[in-house]
């Protein structure tokens, strides 16, 4: 009798992803900038409150949220289009691109939801996106079947590359946010009133 895929040596990927999720979550909560005043279960409510308050404003914040939404639609379209038209098999770099773009998009969503703390210190986004990415790998291990025919070596390699690219997207966004923060602070010291169009209100 064949060993079920979930009980095969590939179980190491599922367990490893779970442990990485927990470790990255722990690191996120201890990284400067983490919105510690908000519990994890309250994050969706915080996002909803942000959207209700800021989408109708018609200013830079509205434009920022629209940009995040359009980016999400683009990434989703590239992913599902790639699956439907078998692009992932024909163009291996497609998977790399969508994972990096997805990581950047998740970082942007977190950053705009917790804008005040992120502008103070944006690099908490990196372990946060890693935790979310690793958690998604656990989900795929439990509920998807595409990996059942993969070798253990290929599964480990694919998972590692996915997580690296997810996190690289978050690194790019966090670095860009740090540059933006420095520019705003520089303009504020010179008396330029045009700084900080996205606001620095509290979370």
Automatic annotation (TrEMBL):
Cited InterPro entries: YjdF-like
Transmembrane segment boundaries: 12-29, 61-85, 91-112, 124-143
Keyword Transport tagged: no
Domain of life: Archaea
Keywords: Membrane, Transmembrane, Transmembrane helix
Name of the protein this chain belongs to: VanZ like family protein
Natural source organism: Halobellus litoreus
